[in-house]
Structures are given as C-alpha cells and as structure tokens.
Write a structure and sequence with these properties.
alpha+beta, five-stranded antiparallel beta sheet, binds adenosine-5'-diphosphate
C-alpha cells in the first residue's frame, strides 16, 4: 500500500463539466463522500458496481447504505485516508458482492474521493497461479518443464527428491540427464509426439537417479503452448511406480511359488525350486536351512545366479557351520521363531557374525547390502528358515519385501506340513495294507468309475489274477479271463448285477453268490459270496465302493453233495411210498366192505401221513429239479377262479379248524401250468392254517387290474417279523424264534412257490408284522386277448 503527501492540485479537485463527462464515461467507479460520510457524487460505473441508483445514494451515509462494509478493510482504509490526509491505496474483497476491488482513496477538503476498480478476474488468475504453484511444489509427482530441445526449464521439489538433483543442478541441463543410455531413443519418440501436439499418458519406463540407481516411473507428458498456440515445450509428470513394480514382482513370484509349493509333495525339491525362482529377481542369494533331527542346522538349499558361487558358498558353509547358540542371524531365527530383517548390512554387523578374520574377509568380498531371514513355522516352532540376501545388485530390502517373504514362508510351511501329513497317511496306509493283505477274504475297493483302486492278495487269488498288480491294471471287474462269472443256476452273470455296480447305481448294500466258471471246461471252479457297501463322504455321496469276496466254494460243494443226496434219496423213497399208498388203498376198500370202522380209522391216519410224506418227497424232487434246471411246466390256458375254487376245496377238506372264505373274483384267464400254480396256492393256504393255530378263518381275496390277476391269502396268525420277509422265500429257511412253538416243515414250500410264480412272470410277496397275521399275494399276468 502506498501513500503520498497530499498535493495542492489534488486537494482542489474540481468537478467541472469536462471532468464530469470524463468521470461518467470511465468504466471504473468513482464516488465523492462529504465530511459526514455522505455521498455527494456517484458516477455511472459506481452505480453499476454498487448496484444502486444514484438517487438512492446521494446525500446518504455510506456506512448506513453499506452496513456490511463497517469493520472491513474499506472502513479502516477510508478512516486512515481521512485521518492521515494521505492517499490510501488498497486491494480488498467485498463479500456481499463477491468481488475484489482495487481502491484509491483521495482525501479532499470536503471529504474523500474514492476511485475503485473491479479486479476480481485478475485476482482469480493470480490465485489460480498461486494455487497451481503450490500444487506443483507440493506434488508427490515430479513435475518437470522442458523445451522441445529437451532443455529442462522447471524442476519441482518432488523431482529433486525423486532424481537426487536440485532444481539448480537440473534446470538448464538436457533431459538426458535422467534417461538411461539404452533408452535415449525413447526421448526422440516422445518429442516427436509432442511436436504433433499429442499427449503421452501413463507411459511406464525407467529413469536413472543421480546416484546411478534405477527407478520405475509412469510418465504423463503434455505439450506447453504459447499464447499463439505454438508448442514451445513440454511438461512432464513423473510418478514413482517402483513400489508398484516391486509389488507386481512380488505377486508374480508368490503366485509362481505357491503353484510350485502345492504341486509336489517332495518338499525338498520344491524348496530348491522356490530358491531358484527367487534368484535374481527377489534376491541375489537365497538359502533355506532346516532343523536336522539331531538339532543342528542343515543347509538344504543355496541359490545364486552363478553356479560357481553356489559351490563356493557351500564350501564356506562347510568350513564355518552355523552355531545354533549364536545370538544373531539364522540361528537366532530358529530359536525365536521371529524374522530378522537388516535393510542395511554394515561392516560391524558382518564382524559380529564371524568366527575369525578369514571368514570376515570372505563375507566382505560377497558385499552383502541387505538381508532378511524368515522362519518356516509349524505349530509355532521354526523348523526351517528362508534367507534372502542382496549383494551385487546394490539394492536394499524394505518392509514390503519382508511381508512378501513372510507370505512365501507361510506357503512353504504349509507345503512342508502337507508333505509330512502325506507321509504319515502313507505310513498308516501301508500298515492298513499289511493288515488287509493278511485277511482271508478278498477285499476290492472301486472308485466311482468302477475302477479298482485297491485289492488285497486274497482278492487277486480268488478272481484268478496272478497278482494284485495285474488285478489293479485289469478292466473294471478285475476278474481273470480264464473265468466266466455265473449265478447259482450256472447262468451267465450280467455285469449290471455285479454288486459294486449295483451300489454305484444307488443300492446301500448289495450281495450276490457268484461262481467262477472255467471257460475251457464250462464248470464252476470256485464260488464266492460277494458283498458291496459304499463309502460315503460327509454330504452322503458315494466316494468309493468296498467289496468283500468271501470264498464259499467248500460250502457250495457241500450243498451240492447234499442236494445230490436229497435227489437220490427222494427218488429212492418215492417208489416205496407210492406202493405203500397203493396197498393202503387196497386195504381201505377191503376193510370198508367188512365194515371194520376202527381199522379204517387207523388206515385213514396212515393215508394222511403217507400224503404228507408224498408231498415232502415231491417237494424235495422239485427242488432237485429246480437246482438242475429240470423243473418243467405244462403250459395251457385256464380259468384262475375255477382253479382257486378247486384248490380251496381240496385244502378245506384237510382241516376242520379253519374256514376258507373267498372274496371277489378275478374273471381271469391265464396261461400257465395249472397244477404247479395249484401247488403254490395250496402251499399258501396250508401255511395260513399252520401258522394261525388260534384262528378259525383264512380269507382268500381275488381281484384283477388291466394287466394282472391278484390272489391274496390272509390269515390271522403269528405273523412274520419284517426282518424275515425276504428270507422266507429262500431255500430251507424257517423263522426260528425261541419264544414260539416250533412248527413242522422244511422251509421249502415258499422257495418252490416263488420259483413257480417267477417262471410264470409273476410276483409273490408278503405283508406282515409279528403277531398280526400275514397276507401273501401272488400277481400273475393275464393271458393276452386272442390267445
Ligand atoms: P415251512 O412252512 O415248510 O417251514 P415255507 O417255505 O412254506 O416252509 O415257509 C417258510 C417259513 O415262512 C416258515 O417256516 C414260517 O416261518 C414262515 N411262514 C410261512 N407262511 C407263514 C404264515 N402264513 N404266517 C407266519 N409265518 C409263515
């Protein structure tokens, strides 16, 4: 602010017409205030600036019209001019108008003349410039100006920090000051682009610092134009991306390393690979040490880009083994389980780790600059260490490097644990194998593609394989070619009925008796009972199938011998029984004529027993026939209802305790062996009477649907527990219950019945609960129309 002594000319400021005309035409504001601070003149420009009509101002007190101006710069400066009678000039912001003014206040005899100019625009430009300058100065990015010839014209603080040159050192120099020799051409390309008015955005490159080290940068360069729009230079913003680059490198290394770590269970090999990966991007030297069983430190891996130096380092380590009790370096990390990080390695630090001056000389030669040792922790204990060291590259590790190394170490520790676990599992698997190999039953484990994944010795023997190995290589069933698999009837056994296939198809347990038939002789050589069960995962899905093969050759052979015996004896018995029956009949007729009632009574009992005997023999013969596939059927069309009435009538004749009640009708014509089916129903009716000693009726239900006729026999007897429902249809199976009284029989009636029904393409089944009676149902297909 300047103030001048008041000149006599100025004090005699006259507003004659000419001056008035000038004042009216100027674009700056001009007002005159009298000694009471009231407006005595206001020019046109002042009207606009003050946003008031002249009439509203003239004669009014300025502080009353503009109360907001009180206690602003305006107020103080106006008073200053009035008090000191000097010209006061100032710049001030008037908030109500949001404008900056340049004001000059001239004291006059009769008050003050005030001249004011709106300088808001200029102020803004100035402020912008200031702001820009502040930004440039405080920016973390280096901002550099240069001419099109590459001469540096400006150089901010960040540039000083980034490149190590002060502004003084850099300005006036050529930009090649910071460009690596091999990248000089890059500058030509950049300049060319700038001359064409192009911008360069986020161009990643490398520059050199004053100390010769390299720095990764992202450059954005824009042309600088003069007022005429000519390109006269360039401004360059350089951002340090070394950290980002390093991060990328770390990530790249880590992802590579973790892939390697998870790919193999041989952790020694894996760690070697990791060390090799680390050199030279991450480290100049990398060593991995492990705790040996005797508590000493064993160097597992040492890596360096130059194999000769690796050899050399190994020899040094041999000569100077690590002392577990040392208070620094690798031993310390082993003991404490915490990393050791040395961003800078000093000579004193080296001296502290050596045992003699020879070792120190050797270490000095390597020229370590920075290093870190990270523990490989398993359950909180260091079982190994990874050491990264920098030497010839002259770099230094940062905290970010330590974080990366720790991440790597945790991956590596996991891999080591995995490998250990695997070894343990392998060991217990080996033990299990020894046990399973000793088991007499064959054990085969299938995967979900029905491939064999495990088999023991016994399984290989039973299935005819020369060894477990050949069995594992064999096709899905694992059964040797010399055998054909047959069922109990000697029929080929389809693959779909193999127990492991049935379990894979959804059954929870599957069982089958199979014979190994010699393909040359066509005779079964061995028999086995095969049982399969699934192994489920936690979601209940099948992961594998375990099949147990139990050799039953001996049992089957014994059964065959028994069958042969039964077959023979029943044949032998049949003839005497037939003649006994014949003679009994002759005797009956004779005694009837003589009227010997008592003898007739005994004869009737003999006859009834003979009937039972005959039925037994014929059942046994049927079984023999079924066994040898010789049970024949006389097929003919017949009326089922008629057959049922006859059968019920016959059985009714043998009992006085129970009444048979037929309910409904089938109206069905069937094609089948009438006598054999009659045998089935007769069996069911007899059983119904036999197993309901306290009841007095049996219900015979007849019905049909579109495809089949259904006969059901319902009794109100002892019933059958669900556990026996399947088994009662097996040969010689009888329900034995210590509480129940025993019922005579052989357990073959239902077995024969099922065979007969199934040979007629029908089904037989039971519904019952212990103590609640039983319903046996037979469903038989109807004779197709027109047959
Ligand atoms: P058997 O009656 O000669 O013993 P079966 O083959 O006819 O032989 O029957 C097999 C077994 O089924 C019988 O021993 C008996 O335990 C059971 N059983 C058959 N029918 C009935 C029934 N109606 N009620 C209760 N149990 C029965």
């Amino acid at each position: 602010m300047s103030s001048h002594p008041l000149s006599s000319d100025e004090t005699k400021l006259r507003l004659d017409r000419q001056i008035l005309a000038v004042l009216e035409s100027i674009s700056d504001g001009f007002i005159v205030l009298d000694t009471h601070w009231c407006y005595s003149y206001v020019n046109r420009a002042a009207e606009t600036i003050l946003q008031k009509q002249r009439e509203d101002l003239l004669g009014k007190n300025v502080w009353e019209v503009f109360p907001e101006a009180v206690s602003t710069t305006f107020w103080t400066k106006y008073y200053e001019a009035a008090d000191t009678q000097t010209i006061v000039e100032f710049e001030a912001f008037y908030p109500p108008f949001g404008k900056w003014f340049h004001v000059r206040v001239y004291p006059t005899e009769s008050g003050l003349a005030v001249y004011f100019q709106d300088i808001t625009e200029r102020k803004q430009i100035e402020e912008d410039q200031l702001r820009l300058a502040a930004i440039v100065a405080s920016s973390d990015d280096a901002i550099i100006g240069k001419t099109l010839d590459g001469i540096i014209t400006s150089w901010n603080l960040a540039a000083e920090k980034m490149f190590g040159y002060t502004a003084q050192e850099a300005i006036g120099k050529h930009i090649s000051l910071i460009i690596p020799v091999e990248l000089r051409e890059e500058e030509d390309v950049i300049i060319q682009k700038l001359r064409n008015g192009q911008h360069i955005d986020h161009f990643e490159t490398v520059r050199v610092r004053k100390d010769g080290t390299r720095i990764h940068l992202s450059l954005s360069i824009s042309p600088i134009k003069n007022k005429e729009g000519q390109i006269i230079g360039a401004s360059k913003i350089a951002r340090d991306i070394s950290e980002r680059k390093q991060l990328q490198q770390h990530l790249h290394f880590l992802s590579h390393a973790s892939k390697v770590l998870s790919s193999s269970l041989d952790y020694k090999m894996t760690l070697q690979t990791i060390a090799n990966l680390a050199v030279p991007q991450i480290a100049d030297w990398c060593t991995i040490d492990m705790l040996a069983e005797d508590g000493s430190i064993e160097q597992l891996v040492i890596a360096h880009a130059d194999p000769k130096r690796v050899q050399w380092a190994k020899e040094i380590r041999k000569k100077y083994p690590l002392d577990m009790n040392a208070t620094n370096g690798i031993p310390q990390v082993f003991r404490t389980g915490t990393p050791v990080f040395a961003p800078f390695i000093s000579d004193e630090m080296l001296a502290a780790t050596v045992v003699n001056s020879e070792q120190l000389t050797l270490l000095r030669k390597v020229g370590f600059t920075s290093g870190m040792t990270i523990p490989l922790l398993v359950n909180g204990k260091a079982i190994g260490t990874v050491t990264f060291a920098l030497a010839e590259s002259g770099r230094h590790y940062t905290q970010a490097d330590v974080a990366m190394a720790e991440e790597l170490a945790s991956h590596a520790s996991l891999a080591i644990q995995n490998a250990q676990l695997y070894r343990e599992v392998q060991q217990s698997r080996d033990q299990l194998d020894i046990i399973l190999q000793g088991v007499a039953d064959g054990i085969v484990v299938y995967d979900t593609d029905s491939r064999i994944i495990y088999a023991n010795e016994a399984a290989a023997q039973m299935t005819g394989s020369t060894s477990v190995q050949t069995m594992l290589k064999a096709a899905s069933t694992g059964i040797a070619d010399k055998y054909e698999i047959v069922d109990e009837q000697g029929q080929p056994f389809p693959r779909s009925r193999f127990t492991h296939i049935r379990v894979l198809a959804g059954e929870r347990e599957a069982q089958a008796t199979i014979g190994y038939s010699n393909t040359q002789t066509g005779k079964p050589e061995r028999w086995s009972l095969v049982k399969s069960r699934p192994v489920l995962d936690e979601r209940g899905e099948v992961t594998m199938v375990v099949t147990i093969i139990h050799d039953i050759t001996e049992r089957v052979l014994a059964e065959q011998r028994k069958d042969e015996f039964i077959s023979m004896t029943s044949h032998e018995l049949k003839t005497p029984v037939t003649s006994l029956k014949g003679f009994t009949n002759v005797l009956q007729r004779r005694l009837a004529k003589q009227g010997d009632e008592k003898s007739l009574y005994y004869l009737a009992r003999i006859d009834a027993q003979l009937n039972k005997l005959a039925k037994l023999i014929s059942d046994l013969l049927d079984i023999t026939r079924m066994q040898t596939g010789k049970l024949t059927f006389q097929m003919e069309a017949f009326d089922l209802d008629v057959l049922m009435c006859e059968t019920v009538e016959n059985v009714q004749a043998t009992t006085i305790t129970h009444r048979f009640l037929i309910e409904g009708r089938t109206d069905a014509r069937l094609c089948g062996d009438k006598d054999r089916l009659g045998q089935v129903f007769s069996n069911l009716l007899t059983n119904a009477v036999k197993y309901s000693p306290r009841a007095n009726k049996v219900l015979v239900g007849l019905s049909r649907d579109q495809e089949q006729a259904i006969v059901s026999v319902r009794d109100f007897g002892i019933g059958i527990d669900e556990a026996h429902h399947q088994k009662i249809f097996e040969r010689f199976y009888q329900v034995t219950d210590p509480e129940e009284r025993t019922y005579p029989g052989l357990g073959i009636g239902l077995y024969i019945s099922r065979e007969i029904v199934e040979r007629h393409h029908g089904q037989i089944g039971v519904e019952s609960r212990k103590g609640e009676g039983a319903i046996f149902s037979v469903a038989l297909p109807l004779l197709a129309e027109g047959k």
